[in-house]
Specification:
248 residues; alpha/beta; 5-stranded mixed β-sheet; 8 helices; 5 strands; elongated
Amino acid sequence: MDMPVNVPVDDPNADTEWNDILRKHGIIPEKPPSPTPLIEEALVEARKQTHDSRLENKGLDELDELEDEEDAEFLEHYRKQRMAELSTIARTSVFNQVYPLQKPDYSRDVTEASRKAFVLVHLTSFLGTNVESRLLTELWHELAQRFGDIKFCEMRGDMCIEGYPDRNTPTILVYHDGDIKRQIITLKGLAGPKTGTRDLEKLLVDVGALEANDTRLLHSASHNESPTLRPRNRMPTSSSTGDDNDWD
């Protein structure tokens, strides 16, 4: 019976003539492929994407400033594309405010309205001491003015659903195509009392209400700061109803 022979190998991955002989006879495994080509390919693709997206999020004035740097035909094509995008935004920006909801009109103002546009509902607290609910109200007004093609609404949670626990407020309901697409109970699912505009913008992108390259999105970290809460004696008392479901 042949006994196995221990062949000395300093480095099985080294490119040596001895290792080539050992690999040929199956004594050591084939050398794994070098990752270098994959890395180089990824770098080339990353550079290409960076170059292709270099004009994204630039306004028309900024595009005009690039006339000496970019190909005129390409720049004109991109300018027309941006003007078309801005025209679409202007045409669909029909809301631009936070809508208080009433119980009898909930189906019409939320469920049915969501067949034409995204509708986001903030179930507010009835307690003026609920910091997160007050914070979300401030953010709601800011986003409503900037994203007029999305309908932002508010109502008190206990008037929407009888017995709705105030500890579950603020609650965010995202409606589209006549159905609830996302439900967030309190801001713990975002950034808690530190929730800012960028956290909510990410939510809008995640649910499909906004494209990731929408030029209205804020990219500066400073814009994610929570707004200063204005003193108020009470929370909004607008009301509405959804399905008679309880969140415990």
